Amino acid sequence: MERPTHGGPAGGTPQGKGTGGGPGLRLGLFAPFALLVLLALAWSAGWFWLRGKAEAEIDGWLSREARAGRQWTCADRALTGFPFRFELRCTSLGFARSDVRFTTGPLVAVAQVYQPRHVILEATGPFRVQQGDLDGNVTWSQLEASLHVTGDGFQRASLVADGLKGRVTGADPSPIDFTVGHLELHARPTPGRFATDGAVDLSARVQRAGLPLLDPVLGGTEPADIALDATVTRATGFRTRPLAQELERWREAGGAVEIASLAAEKGSRRLRAQGLLALDDQHRPTGQFDVRTAGLEQVIAPLISEQIGARLGGDGAALIGNIVGQFLGGRRKEPAPGQAQDGQDRPGEPPLKVLPTVRLTGGRVIVGPFAVPNVRLQPVY
């Protein structure tokens, strides 16, 4: 007696277990894709919500600035960058206040969604500025800036530009032309002094700078390289008020520029300086500097000896010129044992010499006991 068989035909598969799997298995295959779609929809909704919030913040800031007498204009403003960043674009940017106005070409400011407090800015010239009778026009081949802020304020600001060319008209003499091959500016809160002194560290690097107005005085047409490291105290109170008001607030607060290092080179002429710079009660620069030079004593000495010698007359002029020249020539500053030369003795270049202390006081420039003639420091504002 044969035992009954179960299942399908010989060689077949059991019922209910086909090769396509059940409905639950097929739905499981699509679950990751459904989750990805939901995340994309949520991200898109969040990005557009943040963009709307940013637009409202921008409008509110522009309104507050306008009520304070500062008019900002972002032509054809657009906020794009979906999905991972925000890009604020202006076909031109303008600013107008009672004392100054400026415009620049197309501008774009970029911030990543995951790092919204770090803004990168790119601008295209020309930059045109007008203040009183002065008009400035500057172009460049490339310009980038960045600003990193936190809840405690800015952490770092930088600007880098190449191929700068500019002209200022309305000054005396006029026009003033200048060129800069490369420019870098950096600022950060001074560690340990920002909260107490409102101190900000500044670092500037200027390469291949040309200012034809000064070439006859300095005796050469070579481009100049300048490096500056300084600290500005009482800088946290700066706002976008008129310049005269800002500087007066800074002066009354006891603000000063502490120059840790100033290095300038123009051909064979070199200068190293450090000191303190501020404004006196007549709004003129005041301060004191320790200076080392190579080649510039031949520029300074004739200025002083000419006036002193003219008062003496006759052979006294030559004698005074010789004395002043030797006095300003100073002596070579020898490094301490094991101390680096710091670029003082380059092959084929004259050594740096220590000048007498340079002081800015009462509107005069005084080198040692001698006042530089025909040089009067005018009020800054």
TrEMBL record:
Keywords: Membrane, Transmembrane, Transmembrane helix
InterPro entries assigned: DUF2125
Record flagged with keyword Disulfide bond: no
Keyword flag Magnesium: no
Domain of life: Bacteria
Transmembrane stretches, start-end: 29-50
Comp. bias regions, Gly residues: 8-20
Region (Disordered), start-end ranges: 1-20, 330-353
Designated name of the protein: DUF2125 domain-containing protein
Naturally occurring in which organism (per UniProt): Methylobacterium aquaticum
